[in-house]
Amino acid sequence: MVNQYLQILAGKTPGLSSKQTITTYQEEQNDWLDLDAEFYRWTKSLRPVQWYPGHIAKTEKELKEQLKLMDVVIDVRDARIPLATSHPEMDSWIGNKKRMLVLNREDMISTAERNAWATYFAKQGTKVVFSNGQLGMGALKLGRLAKSLAVGINAKRRAKGLLPRAVRAGIVGYPNVGKSSLINRLLKRRMCPAAPRPGVTRVLKWIRFGKDLELLDSPGILPMRISDQGAAMKLAICDDIGERSYDVADVAAILVQMLTKLPTVGSKALYNRYKIHVEDHCGKTFLEKLSMELFNGDVNQAAFRVLTDFRKGRFGWVGLEIPPK
Ligand SMILES: Nc1nc2c(ncn2[C@@H]2O[C@H](COP(=O)(O)OP(=O)(O)OP(=O)(O)O)[C@@H](O)[C@H]2O)c(=O)[nH]1
Fold first, then answer.
1. d(CA 97, CA 36)
2. Which burial class, exposed, middle or buried, applies to 43 when counting CB atoms under 10 A from its CB (0-12, 13-18, 19+)?
3. Which of 106, 172, 203, 274 ranks highest by number of CB atoms within 10 Å?
4. Interface predicted TM-score (ipTM)
5. Alpha-carbon distance 28 to 124, whole Å?
6. From the CB of 242, is ligand 1 less than 6 Å away?
7. Are residues 306 and 271 in contact, defined by beta-carbon separation less than 8 angstroms?
8. Residue 107, marked binder
């Protein structure tokens, strides 16, 4: 990832109709910016982002045990940052079990980004379902796919003289990526608490879905140490890690710098929103000015405002990663 170039993708711009939505995938070399490399340079000197609360440690232990019982593992990721929300140890835990990849929050990226990720994962032979845990898009497809796997599993059981049984599907992923929302949508009722902050689900929970499927909702997990601090910073920007794990002013300053480099956002979008110019691409100075303008010099409040605006799509819907070449 470190030297990977981040291709800037067109995002959905608020106020534009779907016809006007800019979805052109910028292919020219000129449109490639070495943003990721810069991103890592910016984060190097900052306080590391780390979060490993007790409930995550406990979950990881239990989840590893439960994974042994699963027929299929549904790996849910944040569509804005599918790489940063991929657990480095998940592959070894899952082994050769059947696996489905869900990119949730599909509403928060552009169509071009969605297509790019679909192509990338298809090339790897990985089945991807795009979903929206809030509105339920993709949930039914997910349920159908998981159930279809039951056919094969039960055929094998019958061949061994065993009775068919419900398929066990485990829903796993980083905090706040939308696991509980997806399950609620799938079941069409609120079985799992879902909230706009990481770490809400605290215990593993089996839920029956019809007679063919059993779902396991699990609390979000994270590696004990996030060695890739660029990825950790993206988790913080996207609210996929507990707030106590990072310095909000650092994270917002990095976000400002990143936004200025994205052609579909750029300094102009920041100016339009706050009437403040970003000087020399410096996020810190920008936040200081914003704090003086709106928050009596409270930089943390200014930082929260910028992060919240990004998370609500006020600068358009853009992902912070692109598929590796
Ligand atoms: N815009 C958008 N918001 C979503 C989507 N899916 C879930 N959310 C919101 O994201 C927040 C987190 O969703 P949860 O379902 O609680 O996430 P979780 O992965 O179960 O979180 P943990 O309990 O921390 O593991 C909630 O406020 C949801 O409403 C989506 O596809 N699009």
1. 33
2. buried
3. 172
4. 0.97
5. 25
6. no
7. no
8. yes
Q: 194: which residues sit within 8 A by CB, 6+ positions away? A: 133, 178, 180, 181, 184, 200
CATH number of 53-217: 3.40.50.300
pLDDT given for residue 22 in this prediction: 39
Domain extents in the chain: 34-50+226-312, 53-217
Residue 108 CA, closest ligand 1 atom number: 1
* pLDDT per 10-residue tile (average), the chain, 325 residues: 33 40 40 68 85 83 88 94 94 89 95 93 90 86 79 85 89 92 80 63 76 85 86 94 92 94 87 92 94 96 98 93 86
pTM of the shown model: 0.86
Please tell me if the CB atom of residue 161 comes closer than 6 angstroms to any atom of ligand 1: no
Establish whether 30 is an annotated binding residue. no
Q: 3-state SS string over 226-279?
A: CCCHHHHHHHHHCCCCCHHHCCHHHHHHHHHHHHHHCCCCHHHHHHHHHCCCCC
Report the alpha-carbon distance of residue 147 to residue 210 in Å, rounded.
10
Of ligand 1's listed atoms, the one at least distance from the Cα of 132 is 31
Q: Which helix (H) or strand (E) holds 185?
A: helix 179-187
In short, whether 178's Cβ falls inside 6 Å of ligand 1 is yes
